[in-house]
Write a structure and sequence with these properties.
The structure holds two protein chains of two kinds. By secondary structure, chain A is an alpha/beta fold. In chain A, 28% of the residues lie in helices and 21% in strands. The chains are: A alpha/beta, B alpha/beta. At the A-B interface, helix 7 and helix 8 of A face helix 7, helix 8, helix 9 and helix 10 of B.
Amino acid sequence: MSVSDVESGTGLRPLPDRGGPAQPLLAVSGLRKHFPIRGGVLNRVVARVQAVDDVTFSVQKGETLGIVGESGCGTSTTARLLMHMIPPDAGDVVFDGEAVARPGGIALRDLYRQMQMVFQDSYAALNPRLPVSMTIALAPMVHGMPRARALAHAAELLAAVGLEPGLFLNRYPHELSGGQRQRVNMARALALSPRLVILDEAVSALDKSVEAHVLNLLADLKRDFALTYLFISHDLDVVRYMSDRVLVMYLGKIVEIGPVDAIYGAPRHPYTRALLSAVPSMDPLHRTQSAPLSGDPPNPVNPPSGCRFRTRCPFAEPVCAGREPRLALDTSDHGVACHMADAGSGHSRAAS
Amino acid sequence: MSEQGPALSVHDLSVRFTAREGDVTAVNGVSFDLARGEVLGILGESGSGKSVTLRALIGLLPPRRTVIGGTIAFDGRDMAADQTTRLAELRGRKIAMIFQEPMLALDPVFTIGDQIAEAIVRHEAVSWAAAWARAQELLELVQIPSAARRLRNYPHEMSGGMRQRAMIALALSCRPEVLLADEPTTALDVTVQIQIVLLLRALQRELGMAVIFVTHDVGVAVEIADRLAVMYSGRIVEAGTTAEVIAAPKHPYTAGLLGSSVRHARKGVPLRTIPGLPPDLRRLPPGCSFAPRCGHMAMACQQTMPALTALPDGHLSRCRRVVEEGLDPR
């Protein structure tokens, strides 16, 4: 990575597609992160938060993979592990055929050229002492772009995210509204011409009318910059609108994954079904009459044995406590980790 | 107590914050009646004045930097006239509030039981033991499992949904007639949110309370409110029954807000959006404050702020073109 990366036109040249269209842009297997909890006089590890446990999935080139889940289910930890903001305990991440942070694989510095992230808290993500121009220009400068060109590029990116460069280049984060800050964050994420952008609850803190603007912007940028998105959100309506495929997490595990229409139209995991029926009805004449689940999601410290959802599942049987269900994909790429969907698992509702 | 009159009657409420950089009028001429046993939803986005309205009603705004105008009548008696003494008497006993963040609303160094019992002893001449027993009944009322044990928990020992239930129990401790709810479900997970909404709905019916439920979430408002008031830049722009407002909005802002929802949007089709941004409250336009963003704007809209006017069916709208020209804002 050096000055040779800098093209004569705009910005950094997007890195070439190495693996071809059939190679997933991102392949994650067996990803795991347990956070130790220390306590007692000897400060020994007394428990482990099993934030992400044995997570395997891939992201195809050009798609939007939505990730949904409630607090503590591990979506944000997954995003941070993928960005190597925290090191994983186990598991492999392969970016376009190259192993990440492994000898002979892709180095982190090169990974960040191709993979960027936008966070929920648009204000905390920005340096309060940097004007918008430098916020966007800094990363290209680090990657060898001359300052003048990086600043010119920042102006172009600002226009691309719908902010008038003349008005906004010299502003500081506190002079922007939430929606404008999130646009700046998006421009900064695009500054290195990445191929994959992780959006971690990127629209969740915005007002609904602003959210609609930013969602439209995200769709435009995806097309114009040929991006692939990993779209993390707790808002099921937004995920449905944005995603091609959806992954549902519960307590650090993937419980269901599949094409968006299958997940929303024919959910197979009891948790996915509960999640979908907990969404407000939007119909004053047919209000929700009962809550699909009681209580809060359990703490990911010492999660239940076997299937982690069994303590809240209306169909739980002894087999669910004894054995962990495996996620198996069917022919239409729809996978579910539930003994009821596994013929011969021993669950009374499973086909045998 | 006049049983027939509204539980709460707000007339021409205004809230101005004074600051060195200039005054901000956050609430500007808000009037409404809250009937006994009714749930009024106030829907609005950040800066619309919905939370400030609620805080003004219960006297939680910083007195030295706030100028409150208009009248707030509780049970037919004016409160704004003699704010501090009247409010202290009413607060907790007749009118109570729940918040978005129970962790900030509850005291971290006292147990839940202590906090609820203290509120009961403060307002009613009962012994600590009796108050503690009431506290346990209240935790059972809000469906906290093993209530007796949970009374001895500190707020940090509870999950988010449980804390929200505990805060509701605290607010209900002296059987208020009016409950003010400021986005109580916003910080919760979707499966917990629906539980709290259903709980509030059941409690409201059971106890016959009047509730003002402030939210930015149309879906949650629809689940709980009998009537909806929509706020924009410090004013109510539309009010009507929930069913009417959702099915046939009578203000272009409401129509735009409902139209931009992703719920029924088709993938790949851009969302309909309201152009522009809400106005700066320090520099409100002279006419309708939504006019600069409105697709139906006419010359007259920019000259005077239209009044909130009742349509023949009782639905209230602050849009000149809807009221005078019968425009459908959708």
